[in-house]
From TrEMBL:
UniProt organism field: Nostoc flagelliforme FACHB-838
Superkingdom of origin: Bacteria
The UniProt record lists the keyword Phosphoprotein: yes
Record keywords: Phosphoprotein
Annotated positions of the 4-aspartylphosphate modification: 64
A matching Pfam family: Response_reg
Lineage: Bacteria, Bacillati, Cyanobacteriota, Cyanophyceae, Nostocales
Name of the protein this chain belongs to: Response regulator
PROSITE patterns: RESPONSE_REGULATORY (PS50110)
Chain ranges of the Response regulatory domain: 15-130
């Protein structure tokens, strides 16, 4: 398995993987983040995110909690159980009130963002997560 990590400190070359099963959400995140100079890749399922991560590790994963098949918590667990992927910083995103307040002690994420997301808030979370990693 060949794995590459984003390389530079400025947003222009930071790679963000967005995993959300709703196309409109993906379009919103991609448009906003690309306007800020980030490189964005989109996947629409947990399985697709794990497949993407077999070849490249992004600087940040924006991960929807409520997805069919495999929810965001399970995706995060699988990532964190892989020694190569443990360096990945994850921000969870959810519209579900219960999921927003739910604590999963075995899942370590930089934060949980509630949908609908305000553009300035999203950019703030992304910048903080990229700077502070898992310690947000």
């Amino acid at each position: 398995m060949v794995v590459k990590k984003g390389v530079t400190q400025d947003s222009t070359n930071k790679l963000i993987l967005v995993c959300d099963d709703v196309a409109d959400n993906c379009f919103f995140f991609q448009t906003l983040l690309e306007m800020e100079g980030y490189e964005v890749e989109i996947v629409e399922s947990g399985a697709a995110a794990l497949a993407f991560l077999e070849s490249k590790i992004p600087d940040l994963l924006l991960l929807d909690v409520m997805m069919p098949g495999m929810d965001g918590y399970e995706v995060a667990r699988r990532i964190q159980n892989n020694p190569i992927l443990q360096i990945l910083t994850i921000l969870l995103i959810t519209a579900n009130e219960e999921a927003f307040f739910r604590k999963e002690p075995d899942v370590k994420v930089a934060g949980v963002i509630r949908k609908p997301v305000e553009p300035d808030a999203l950019i703030g979370y992304v910048q903080a997560a990229l700077q502070l990693g898992h310690y947000l």
